């Protein structure tokens, strides 16, 4: 360095230590005379910190070697800064400490001055509020006054617990890329040099954590926050908060402890002790108790069946057909018993769960095999469902056929497209099977009319029409007598509706902002069909369907009837398949004491000489001041077993704890430094930030391992050095625990009871609100800490059929679109901002879509996507395109959702449209999958995420300027895509 004009440029006082193009190290050592405490050094250190993204407190009287040395020499003649390029030495000469203080302020606030001469300078002189260079004219020093600008909002302090919460001394109440700091620091001149240097370090940290720093910060009358540090003869020291004024008063060691706590220590979330008493794991967990314990036991439907046969048998019958919701082995036993009991030889016992599949596989298949060589194609003509009061779709009986086309194709060596469907609203049988030869002639046809039972849906308005049990006596193929009776599932579900849902709303106390109950645990034991099919992940499982009905129908019930109770409590249906068992259930409703949010603002902290942390705090409880003793800070947080470990993450941050008390860590990837302090908000001014949320719905299992794998791979290749990436590796740990519990017995079910959080809440809708749900606060925390450009939410969909007989034989009516069948192995959703000012965001979304489509082309992902799309169109989209929508970019299914700016929205790009560039969701067919299927879904999630990262340019437009008394660094948003031209780093002066 041979030019003081470049004093604040990277490479001199500040350097890029890790070679990623971002200043991250203070490269100078300031050697101060003993007892030397010029207040302007606080401003100088603040500017020093502002110019870097990271620092360590070792540059004041430090012993470690630095790139440059800076000393201070008392000089009766002149006050000046001189550079000695050959020795890399700076020397401050000063006539008085007061004049040097003003000179330091000037260099911090105004250097380099606008319009400065374009020639190298090795000395700057200062006297009587004027500055000049060798043979240059004297120029008066004029510090700019604050003016109205885009930073004119004020940062307010509500509590001392606000400090350093989001990686800055004081953060805005609303997330924003600009981290503004407007402070006044007033230091008692009698303070020891030891404490003074601690304050200088704190000023450097405050500057580092700012992207808009108002200078000077000493001797100013107007600021958002006033910090006053006084030397007082007290036995103990105190930090007090009064409006926007923070006072630190005391003496000796206790005062130093208070100053270091305030300015040096890190928040408890980062492993420090700031506000450590607020750690949720230090609070007593709420006690739970049982408010209701109901037991139900029914008669076995097989016993009911035999009893009905015994009482109502028609001696004329030469044939009988029975429908039972039982596994095949139990139905065979019933057939044998009925044959012996009645003497009727021709007895057929079909399943009343997915009866058409049962009939085709167990009965009609024999006829099909006999003519297999003659078959050209098979047509299933299905009755169009027309119940006006029903929840069922018009394609209800086509749904019943799934996945017969592929199963028949395998069994008869037919292409699946040789099995077709047709709707007919006039026919009585729900399904007619017509078998054709090559000439178009009908080889044979068969039909079936299955028994239906009508029940109320939980909304009290609609009806549902599940298949029920029935005995039919026939003579010559015609029914002469029939007796309907309920399945075990119907009997239990009726009990659950009438004795649980319809009764306990009035019995449970409503707590505003709290769940109605902690959880309902439903243990059901029944003899029911449970069979895995040879097609994809498909299975016949009536208890999985009951699990889904109990969960979603309960939530829907409270949506409608629950006195605005949108998070009633957890609903945990545990299903136990027990062949031949008597149906029984136990329903326990648990309650916990009211879970209150933190109350009272901390307005005072007391420090003793013997302890480096506060020993007492004062709280303002609605005007009443209460003091509390503070215990010793606990050991560091043990994240626990619920998070996949990352080998490559630069840092693990712990922002929140879930409703049930499990930590929710966050992994951060950035180019690492050896520095003690790092500003994420400052890093975001240099590089784009990508936020990836995984495990939001805990039964969607591929996103968590996918983000760790992807980041470990990309970190090794250093292909993301131009980005900072933040990931929530397990956003819903309570759901994750529920999922683990449920999969122990039924490992391949979807288990949607683990979808939402512990109390059945889609907690994303509670973001940016006062809420007891820590899982809802994590993304807002990260929007504060990082201000990400791109938000990615990795999700999943069922890997096999989702049916709910007590909700219309479809995915829940509360969803406007059907998720009955998977529509792809991987697909995307992008929020498309509307409005003339958001064209850049729309262009970026389109670029991402196209790049993602190109990456998927020619891979197994495209092949699998096409397989699922063929099914989806065949069974759903061709009949009901609005309920089974398709929107494609080339061969890639990708939905764009029109999104409008809404500053109350919980959606990132809607709430922050001016600085969030893209907001995307992935959906992989991963609900409770394993092995090679899980690996494929993991690969799909990785491709989705990597496609987005690859679109972002390595060069972004950066500006550094002064405006209205602030030093500002900012990166242009929306971000720059590859192929676009980014402006070179610019330094402008706007006074």
Which terms summarize this structure?
991 residues, alpha/beta, Dihydrodipicolinate Reductase, domain 2, nine-stranded mixed β-sheet, 19 helices, 25% helix, elongated, disordered C terminus, Peptidase M14 domain-containing protein, metallocarboxypeptidase activity, zinc ion binding
Structure description:
The protein is α/β, with parallel strands linked by helices. Among the domains are: 1-146, Chitobiase, domain 2 (2-Layer Sandwich), CATH 3.30.379; 353-449, Dihydrodipicolinate Reductase, domain 2; 651-952, Aminopeptidase, CATH 3.40.630; 956-991, no CATH class. It is built from 19 helices and 48 strands. The strands form 11 sheets. It has a 9-stranded mixed beta sheet, sandwiched between helices. A hairpin with an 8-residue loop joins strand 33 (601-607) and strand 34. Helix 1 (40-50) runs parallel beside helix 3 (193-208), helix 5 runs parallel beside helix 6 and helix 13 (703-717) crosses helix 19. The protein is elongated, with a radius of gyration of 35 Å. The protein starts with 13 loop residues before the first strand and ends with a strand. Residues 986-991 have low confidence and may be disordered.
Produce a short descriptive summary.
The protein is an alpha/beta fold. The chain is built from 19 helices and 48 strands.
């Amino acid at each position: 360095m041979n030019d003081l004009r470049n004093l604040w440029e990277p490479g001199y006082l500040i350097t890029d230590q890790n070679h990623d193009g971002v200043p991250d190290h203070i490269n100078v050592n300031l050697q101060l005379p003993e007892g030397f405490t010029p207040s302007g050094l606080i401003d100088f250190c603040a500017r020093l910190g502002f110019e870097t993204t990271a620092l360590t407190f070792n540059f004041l009287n430090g012993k470690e070697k630095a790139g440059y040395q800076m000393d201070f020499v008392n000089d009766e003649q002149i006050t000046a800064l001189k550079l000695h390029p050959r020795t890399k030495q700076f020397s401050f000469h000063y006539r008085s400490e007061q004049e040097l203080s003003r000179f330091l302020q000037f260099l911090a606030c105004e250097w380099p001055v606008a319009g400065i001469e374009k020639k190298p300078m090795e000395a700057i002189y200062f006297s009587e509020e004027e500055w000049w260079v060798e043979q240059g004219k004297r120029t008066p020093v004029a510090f700019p006054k604050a003016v109205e600008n885009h930073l004119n909002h004020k940062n307010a302090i509500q509590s001392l617990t606000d400090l350093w919460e989001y990686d800055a001394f004081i953060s805005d109440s609303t997330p924003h890329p600009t981290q503004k700091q407007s402070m006044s620091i007033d230091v008692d001149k009698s303070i020891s040099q030891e404490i003074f240097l601690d304050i200088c370090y704190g000023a450097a940290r405050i500057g580092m954590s700012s992207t808009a720093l108002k200078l000077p910060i000493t001797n100013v009358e107007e600021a958002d926050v006033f910090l006053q540090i006084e030397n007082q003869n007290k036995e103990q020291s105190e930090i007090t908060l009064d409006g926007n004024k923070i006072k630190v008063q005391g003496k000796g060691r206790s005062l130093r402890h208070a100053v270091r706590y305030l300015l040096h220590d890190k928040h408890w979330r980062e492993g420090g002790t700031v506000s450590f008493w607020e750690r949720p794991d230090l609070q007593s967990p709420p006690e739970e108790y049982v408010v209701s314990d109901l037991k139900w036991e029914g008669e076995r439907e097989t016993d009911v069946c035999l009893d009905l046969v015994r009482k109502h048998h028609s001696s004329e019958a030469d044939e009988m057909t029975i429908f039972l919701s039982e596994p095949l082995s139990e139905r065979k036993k019933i057939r044998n018993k009925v044959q012996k009991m009645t003497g009727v030889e021709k007895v057929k016992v079909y399943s009343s769960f997915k009866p058409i599949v049962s009939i085709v596989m167990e009965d009609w298949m024999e006829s099909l095999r006999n003519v297999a060589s003659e078959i050209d194609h098979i047509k299933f003509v299905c009755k169009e469902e027309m119940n006006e009061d029903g929840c069922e779709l018009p394609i209800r009986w086509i749904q019943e056929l799934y996945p017969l086309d592929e199963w028949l194709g395998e069994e008869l060596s037919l292409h699946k497209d040789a099995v077709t469907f047709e709707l007919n609203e006039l026919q009585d049988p729900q399904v007619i099977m017509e078998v054709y030869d090559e000439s178009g002639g009908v080889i044979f046809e068969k039909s079936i009319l299955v028994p239906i039972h009508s029940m109320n849906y939980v909304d009290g308005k609609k009806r549902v029409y599940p298949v029920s049990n029935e005995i039919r006596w026939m003579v010559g193929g015609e029914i002469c007598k029939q007796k309907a009776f309920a399945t075990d599932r119907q009997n239990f579900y009726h009990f659950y509706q009438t004795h649980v849902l319809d009764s306990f709303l009035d019995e449970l106390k409503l707590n505003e902002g709290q769940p109605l109950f902690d959880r309902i645990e439903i243990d059901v034991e029944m003899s029911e069909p449970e069979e895995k099919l040879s097609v994809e992940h498909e299975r016949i499982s009536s208890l999985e369907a009951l699990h889904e009905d109990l969960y979603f129908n309960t939530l829907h019930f409270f949506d409608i009837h629950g006195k605005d109770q949108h998070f009633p409590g957890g609903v945990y249906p545990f299903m136990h398949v027990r062949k031949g068992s008597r149906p029984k259930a136990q329903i326990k409703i648990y309650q916990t004491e009211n879970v209150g949010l933190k109350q009272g603002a901390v307005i005072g902290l007391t420090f003793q000489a013997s302890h480096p942390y506060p020993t007492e705090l004062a709280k303002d409880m609605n005007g009443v001041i209460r003091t509390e003793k503070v215990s010793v800070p606990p050991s560091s947080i043990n994240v626990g077993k619920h998070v996949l470990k990352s080998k490559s993450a630069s840092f693990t941050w712990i922002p929140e704890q879930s409703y049930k008390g499990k930590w929710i860590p966050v992994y951060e990837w950035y180019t690492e430094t050896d520095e003690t302090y790092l500003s994420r908000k400052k890093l975001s001014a240099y590089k784009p930030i990508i936020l990836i949320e995984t495990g939001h719905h805990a039964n969607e299992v591929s996103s968590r391992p996918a983000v760790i794998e992807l980041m470990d791979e990309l970190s090794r290749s250093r292909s993301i050095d131009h980005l900072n990436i933040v990931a929530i590796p397990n956003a819903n740990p309570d759901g994750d625990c529920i999922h683990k519990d449920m999969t122990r017995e039924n490992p391949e079910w979807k288990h949607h009871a683990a979808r939402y959080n512990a109390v059945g809440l889609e907690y994303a809708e509670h973001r940016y609100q006062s809420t007891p749900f820590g899982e809802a606060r994590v993304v807002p925390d990260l929007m504060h800490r990082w201000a990400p450009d791109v938000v990615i939410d990795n999700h999943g969909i069922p890997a096999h059929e989702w049916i709910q007989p007590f909700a219309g034989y479809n995915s829940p009516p509360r969803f406007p679109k059907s998720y009955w069948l998977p529509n792809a192995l991987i697909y995307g959703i992008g929020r498309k901002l509307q409005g003339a000012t958001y064209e850049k965001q729309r262009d970026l979304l389109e670029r991402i879509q196209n790049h993602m489509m190109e990456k998927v082309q020619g891979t197994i992902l495209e092949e699998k996507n096409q397989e699922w799309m063929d099914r989806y169109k065949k069974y759903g989209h061709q009949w009901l395109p609005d309920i089974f929508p398709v929107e494609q970019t080339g061969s890639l299914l990708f939905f764009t959702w029109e999104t409008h700016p809404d500053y109350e929205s919980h959606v990132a790009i809607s709430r922050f449209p001016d600085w969030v560039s893209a907001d995307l969701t992935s959906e992989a067919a991963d609900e409770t999958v394993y092995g090679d299927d899980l690996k494929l879904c993991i690969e799909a999630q990785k491709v989705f995420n990597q496609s987005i990262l690859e679109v972002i340019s390595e060069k972004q437009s950066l500006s550094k300027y002064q405006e209205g008394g602030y030093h500002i660094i900012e990166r242009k948003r929306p971000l720059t895509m590859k192929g676009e031209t980014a402006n070179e780093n610019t330094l402008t002066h706007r006074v």
